[in-house]
Sequence to fold (431 residues):
Amino acid sequence: MLQGHSRSVESLIEPGRVSRLVYTDPNVFELEMERIFGRAWLYVGHESQIPNPGDYFTTDLGRQPVIMIRQNDQSIRVLLNRCTHRGAKVVNEVCGHARHMSCLYHGWTYDTDGTLLAVPVPEGCPAGFENKNYSLAQAPRMETYRGFVFASLSPNGISFEDHLGGMKANIDDLVNRAPEGKLALDAGVHRYMFRGNWKLQIENVLDSYHVPFGHASTVSKEGVQFARREGDKEGAKVVDKNNTANDWKVRRSYDMGNGHGWTSNTMLDEGKRTSPAYDAYVASLSAKLGEERATEILKPRMHNSLIYPNVSIMGLNIHVRVIKPIAVDLTEVTVYPIRLLGAPDSMNFGNIRLLNVTHSAASFVQSDDAEAFTRTQSGLASQLTEWVDISRGMGSEDVDADLNAPRAKATDEMVVRGQYRAWLNYMREVA
Ligand code: FES
Ligand SMILES: [Fe+2]
Fold:
């Protein structure tokens, strides 16, 4: 039973619909922090953010502050950012370099591996006090895949391999596009908050249904007005004229299990792209890997993905998006531009400029979504209508033979239903 309720978490999820309480109830949010963010594999950061020993990056896993820090042997540790004295956050900066880490409160000082090096006025410590018993706590499990660092705050649970599953191919799809086979997330960030529940953002990254409406001012004003008047089918004909309709017709979404999903990419038909910057990029990839392999890598496959529960890799205007729940109705989103290492600067800077226009806090695209999330959270305050409908496309899914994964139109809500299957697994499971 949920605290303060006569309801169980199971009662909040039904086929094709979920209770408004999953977005609005503080008790549900508390349970999510414990049962999802307290034990799932969570994206922490990228290795390129901490290239040298002593480099660190701080973030929160759920609401628990952590330090991702490079060790002298080049390995990476994820330490809990909580002084073992009286609990202060030890590192306050988002990123930097440290020879050691000192707590501002009473000066306890830690090595970069988390061991306590020194305590001021040590003669005040009781008999038997030993520094080695006061190391910073470490995330019980940490794994990396091609530069992406994940950690779990629980020693138990699904293995990283099993958790990531088919989403490895999604990371490969992006990383392989770098001529050097590596990414760098070192071009700054866009960070913003919205007054809404965190799940609104993870549902949205795989939602192709909203694009012509939520982003009408960007994609096709006339087409959307027509579609609204005449219905999707006729409207699509108009939208088709400026290519947006290809999404409606061809793009598919895939339920990759464990709450993960992706949508295929049809808008970004790499084979048809041409510009001096893009041509130079293709030449750099071909020079490194050969033309055949370069052509294979550039086949449009990935559009957007969600690696449940807190990171999205966006293929269209490439970036990594990290979703951080703060309160039941408050979420922080951080967008990291990506540099494809080995690609010409003109290509990388062009991608970053596009991202600035589409996904900064005051951009054409992301601000539309933030407005939609805020309005949704406001609307869900209405108590007379309990259920949120996610039934679109139910029963019309098929199976993609190559991926062995359920597939649907990207305008359907199959992947959202997949997210709630994962949600329920975490929420009802006793650790
Ligand atoms: S709380 Fe960190 S030194 Fe006291
Ligand atoms: Fe959107």
Residues 230-246 have pLDDT under 50 and may be disordered. Residues 83, 85-88, 103, 105-108 surround FE2/S2 (inorganic) cluster (ligand 1) (CB under 6 Å). The first strand starts at residue 13 and ends at 14. DSSP finds 15 helices and 24 strands in the chain.
